[in-house]
Amino acid sequence: MKSKPLIILLLFLLWGAGSTYWYVCRIKGFCPPRQEQQATVPAPEPAPGPAQPAKVEKPFLTFDRNDAVPHINNDSLWQANIQKLLQQAEEGKRLKISGPYYAAETNTSTYDNLGLARAAGLKALLAKFTDTSKVMIAARKLTGTAGVPDFFDGFENTFALVTYNKFVHEEAGKTLIYFPFNSNQEIRNPQINAYLDRLAAQMKADPQMRIKITGHTDNIGKAETNLWTGMQRAKRIRDILVRKGADASRIQTASEGERKPIASNATREGRRKNRRVEIEIIR
């Protein structure tokens, strides 16, 4: 077969097929509609909304700004921590509550500052657990550059068991060490030495800590002699602390002699209380 008739035959067949398709599908509409490929378009992501602040978990004991009332946010944790603290109490120790406060807070209480008012409130709460007649209260000033928060932890660094025996009294803001009559010599009392061990360790652990030691006497003898005796007592305590590892450059010494009694010099017990050294943290 020659090529020209073959080409004509192929063209005829193509024309026939095309005509049939056109007649059946386009004119008669018997062909099913062709399904077109649908492009899958991902659904748009929702626009991000404003960031939700993280929920702040309150400590079990808090104080609100400008408010002296303690708030117990978890009674079981509060009771567990107080019971643990009281179980650690021993002879010669007293519970001391140092109420936290910021100097910028508004004080509407009858106390000098909110720290003392908060400590008094906590002392009242403790009456449920223990005899509070010997519980001491003090104020603890807080510092910060971000201002006073809406609330803050009322337990951390607020409660402590402090030394309180015949020879050493840790009171609000200072510690009193008592001396025998006419004495400024070596201290051999184990209770005093135990306290000075702890104080020296604190000073070694905190290089910013500075203390002032002031000697006092009763009014027996001449005022000039008592002023000298008071200074010797202060220096004796300083020397012991230095031997235990404290930095002498961070210890100040002074004497008030008989000028600032804390009890009556008319009684033997009063004179004993006046023969003392007072240690204050001044940093």
Task: Explain what this protein looks like in three dimensions.
The chain folds into 2 domains: 59-162, 60s Ribosomal Protein L30, Chain: A; 165-283, OmpA-like domain (60s Ribosomal Protein L30, Chain: A). The strands form 3 sheets. A 5-stranded mixed β-sheet has the order 7-8-11-9-10. The protein has a 3-stranded antiparallel β-sheet with strand order 2-1-5. The protein is rod-shaped and about 150 Å long. The model has no long low-confidence stretch (mean pLDDT 85). The relative contact order is 0.10. The chain contains 6 helices and 11 strands. It has 283 residues and is α+β, with helices and mostly antiparallel strands.
What's the total helix number? 6
CATH superfamily of the largest domain: OmpA-like domain
Q: Quick check: average pLDDT?
A: 85
Main-sheet strand order equals: 7-8-11-9-10
Find the CATH topology of the largest domain. Answer: 60s Ribosomal Protein L30, Chain: A
Q: Which overall shape is indicated by the principal axes computed on the Cα atoms?
A: rod-shaped
Distance between the termini: 119 Å
Assign a percent range to the helix content. Answer: 25-40%
Strand content: 15-25%
CATH architecture of the largest domain: 2-Layer Sandwich
Which segments are poorly predicted (pLDDT under 50) over 5 or more consecutive residues?
none
- Structural class, judged by helices and strands? alpha+beta
Largest beta-sheet characterization = 5 strands, mixed
The Rg value, from CA coordinates, equals 42 Å
Order of helices and strands: HEEHEHEEEEEHEHEHE
Quaternary organization: single chain
Q: What's the CATH C level of the largest domain? A: Alpha Beta
The structural domain count equals: 2
Count of distinct strands = 11
